[in-house]
Amino acid sequence: DLLFAGTFGRIFHGILIEEKDPSKEKQVFVKTVKDQASEVQVTMMLTESCKLRGLHHRNLLPITHVCIEEGEKPMVLLPYMNWGNLKLFLRQCKLVEANNPQAISQQDLVHMAIQIACGMSYLARREVIHRDLAARNCVIDEALQVKITDNALSRDLFPMDYHCLGDNENRPVRWMALESLVNNEFSSASDVWAFGVTLWELMTLGQTPYVDIDPFEMAAYLKDGYRIAQPINCPDELFAVMACCWALDPEERPKFQQLVQCLTEFHAALGAYV
């Protein structure tokens, strides 16, 4: 079944049958490209798909198989998560929320944030920089378990989230730290900045950050000290966590393990009021 299609990329829901035991089947995401995809696009998909390969954590979704046959387009297989892309899930929740305010709770959203922070903390310990953390690069299942994915095909499937600033490279400008925008510097600290924006996405149920700011003006806007506004119904304590992630000095931003602890304490406090 086709789940998403972009200009050159496609993601399917498929079934993987084990060669040694055909009775065993696993549901998978299948990432591939269309027939008209260029070699550059194919190489980019494969390179970005391998970003998390060999890493094992309950909040990561690394690839399980890469299928390459002569004359066929390559396929990248990942474990299936039945509620799919987190960004699209959040936006669906927003539609449901209009009729049912209890559709998803603030406690649920904070729990999702904790899981993302746990996965990113693991990457930081392994000295792996994601470079494109966002709700669009996470998936979710019916138990509200969240896993971080690579960004393969994201530029194609979510083109409105990427912008070219004149250097022929599409970047997730609205999720990027100032040092990444200006100096092309990436680190665990720039991933923390992106996590703050991802937390904002969670609390707004999938809204686009800085939607009124021209991407070419983003660096100057951030340099002048401006940030996205506090979401409606977002507690001050939670917005303070986001704000810490957006400190101009990378050294002043919290580490992911600190974010896990802080959000876990906030989640427990929310539970005390339920």
TrEMBL record:
UniProt-annotated binding residues for ATP: 136
Metal-binding found in the keyword field: yes
Keywords: ATP-binding, Glycoprotein, Kinase, Magnesium, Membrane, Metal-binding, Nucleotide-binding, Phosphoprotein, Receptor, Signal, Transferase, Transmembrane, Transmembrane helix, Tyrosine-protein kinase
Record flagged with keyword Phosphoprotein: yes
CC annotations in GO: plasma membrane; receptor complex
MF terms (GO), sorted A to Z: ATP binding; metal ion binding; transmembrane receptor protein tyrosine kinase activity
Residue positions binding Mg(2+): 137, 150
Protein localization: Membrane
Name of the featured protein: receptor protein-tyrosine kinase
Biological process (GO), any one: positive regulation of neuron projection development
Signal sequence interval, chain numbering: none
Membrane topology value: Single-pass membrane protein
A Pfam family assignment: PK_Tyr_Ser-Thr
E.C. numbers: 2.7.10.1
Active-site residues annotated for this sequence: 132
Sequence ranges assigned to domain Protein kinase in this UniProt record: 1-270
Protein source organism: Pomatostomus ruficeps (Chestnut-crowned babbler)
Superkingdom of origin organism: Eukaryota
